[in-house]
Write a structure and sequence with these properties.
This protein is α+β, with helices and mostly antiparallel strands and 168 residues long. The chain has a single domain, classed as 3-Layer(aba) Sandwich (Aminopeptidase), CATH 3.40.630.30. It contains 4 helices and 5 strands; from the N terminus they run E-H-H-E-E-E-H-E-H.
Length: 168
């Protein structure tokens, strides 16, 4: 497949008519991060993205009618600053289009959305071994010192709702 030049890139919101290509790219994203193949995850995510009331949103970057990249994002409250930011959950560029400005265009559009919506920050994470992406991100944003942790949910016994509101 011949990829269009970056100068012809346009970034726009995801549309229902993008489903087939979006699914290809999202599967590619999941493969890149070695996530288990699971079509129910792909379908659930698509449902979120096309539901107007859901908090998840998506942008696509396209050139000459070909979608080359996707970005999933959402607003997130920042209690420590009393502001709301934009969290970039997923960013993926077709491997044949890498290095052509696709990811840059998607991130730059998110920063414009953040400005228009008076958001305080656009934030995202990446794998520490994704050096190609980090080379771009270091040009577009400030690398932070924060370390991310994931904890598995514990099985909860019945509770009265007050357990989550105590002293911290």
């Amino acid at each position: 497949m011949t990829m269009p030049r970056a100068s012809s890139l346009a970034v726009r919101p995801l549309a229902r008519t993008d489903e087939d290509r979006w699914r290809q790219l999202f599967r590619g994203y999941r493969d890149f991060y070695l996530l288990q193949e699971d079509e129910s995850v792909v379908s659930t995510t698509w449902g979120w993205l096309i539901a107007p009331a859901h908090e998840c949103n998506a942008l696509v970057a396209e050139a000459d009618g070909q979608i080359l990249g996707i970005a999933h994002y959402r607003a997130f409250p920042r209690p420590s600053t009393g502001t709301v930011g934009i969290w970039l959950d997923d960013l993926f560029t077709d491997p044949d289009a890498r290095g052509r400005g696709v990811a840059r265009a998607l991130i730059e559009r998110l920063t414009r959305i953040a400005g228009a919506e008076e958001r305080s920050v656009v934030r995202w994470i990446t794998a520490n071994d994704n050096e190609q992406a980090q080379a771009l991100y270091d040009q577009l944003a400030v690398r932070t010192n924060w370390v991310t942790y994931d904890a598995a949910p514990a099985a909860e016994q019945a509770w009265d709702g007050e357990q989550h509101h105590g002293a911290h």
